[in-house]
Amino acid sequence: MTDVMHNFELYQPASLADAQELLGDHDDAWIIAGGKDSLDWFKHRVKQPSVLVDIAAIPELHGIREEADGGLYIGAMTTLTEVAESDLVNARFPALAMAASKVASPQIRNAGTLGGNVAQDTRCTYYRDGFPCYRAGGNTCYANTPTAMNREHTLFEASRCVAVTPSDTGVALAALGATFHIQGRRRDREVSADEFFIGPDVDIERMTSLEHRDILLGIRVPGTWAGAHQYFEKVADRNAWDFALVNIAMAARMEGGAIAEVSMVCGAVQCTPRRLTDVESLIVGETPGEELETLVKRVASSGAKPLNYNHFKIPLMENLAARAVRSLV
Amino acid sequence: MSKVHVTTTVNGDAVEFLADPRETLLDCLRDHVGLTGTKEGCGTGDCGACSVEMEGVLVCSCLVLGVEANGKRVDTIEGMSDGHDLHPLQRKFIEHAALQCGFCTPGFLVAAKALLARSPDPTEEEVRYWLAGNLCRCTGYDKIVRAVMDAAAEMRQEAA
Questions:
Q1: Could A4 and B68 be called an inter-chain contact, meaning their C-beta atoms sit closer than 8 Å?
Q2: End-to-end CA gap in chain A
Q3: What number of C-beta contacts closer than 8 Å exist between A and B?
Q4: Is the ipTM here above 0.90?
Q5: What is the per-residue DSSP string for B68-95?
Q6: Is the same domain home to A50 and A94?
Q7: Do B67 and A10 touch (CB under 8 A)?
Q8: pTM of the predicted protein model
Q9: pLDDT tens across B96-128, in order?
Q10: What CATH number has the domain bearing residue A15?
């Protein structure tokens, strides 16, 4: 059930400097981008920050720019529709365009942003319903009990919390080696997907390394994989709208019929996008085909520790990895 | 917090109202502007009953703050017919009986209109994917999809 939102003060700064000042003045300020995840939290009255900083009016956070190395810089406030329909993104990074086009519905993609999609919170129903779990500052996990419904939860890297990353674009960006440009209180920094997405072992109450007073300015996709073969696939309960049960992104280069270079990342199987390093090292130098697919399926999910109701994610993950390899034939 | 003065254009008419910052665009349209055609189904962006166009872009008005509409153009279901004749989509929804309780219908019509504006000759698959963010619990969608395809065909003929 949703409710009227709590009372908050809303600021709509037109410059980054003003936004930083507001964040400095208010300790529980909450940055709102497209608001798709934020308003959901507020309407359920689970999170009630007293101050909202809407960053939509800051011009430098919008748009897609070409970079000298053949890559792209995408402002954090660029909408998912703009990413999905951009000629530049489609020509260079089709896996990202495809991932953006698979998020939710047209209505959500039109207002939801790339920055918001990678920074959104997890979808664990217990956490989102306001259960006082580890992630919410409590001392138990409601999703990992003998009777809990956890078909959407982790296969890997659980650490007290078993919630998974909900982002489709985050998985594509991780596969493409993107970096996340963050303005902090004192200086700007640019971090890789490995550092941007964090698991519960690093901080159980956050999904990303963004801290108070950090603003995600944009995402740089380097030229490394521009124009290379790319693949993205998402499996969800519904063929549209839904969050992924498992998704996969791959970028690869072929040389003389063999796989020369590859980057493969799976989503919704752990708290962060999961790089399939075992698969990568297995298939480099090999020729794609049925034989290789059989081997890929054997290693893709090695080490998985399913919960009570999510064993189905193991074959799902194995088949997605095999299908990604098949796309190279 | 004090209310915010919002000046906007709704269905071509200049409109102004005072909005509490926590009111959604949907709340503002229904409670301040008096346009109750736009419905609240879920309030969380799942059902699309609150679909409107803001600056020509289809959005869920329940997930947009009313103050975000300041200075922008908003188009709702009330602006769909010209005041005399129904829009072809509206007519085809009636002809195909593409509604029963009618609660989802304004959202479907606004969403379908946005689709036909960008893709006048959509495939059935395209229609189904585009309307994936609109839920109907009565008709089972087939009639809605047929109505949209039929309206698209008629609108293409009119345009030719």
A1: no
A2: 48
A3: 85
A4: yes
A5: GGTT-EEE-GGGSS-SSSPPHHHHHHHH
A6: no
A7: yes
A8: 0.97
A9: 999 999 999 999 999 999 999 999 999 999 999
A10: 3.30.43.10
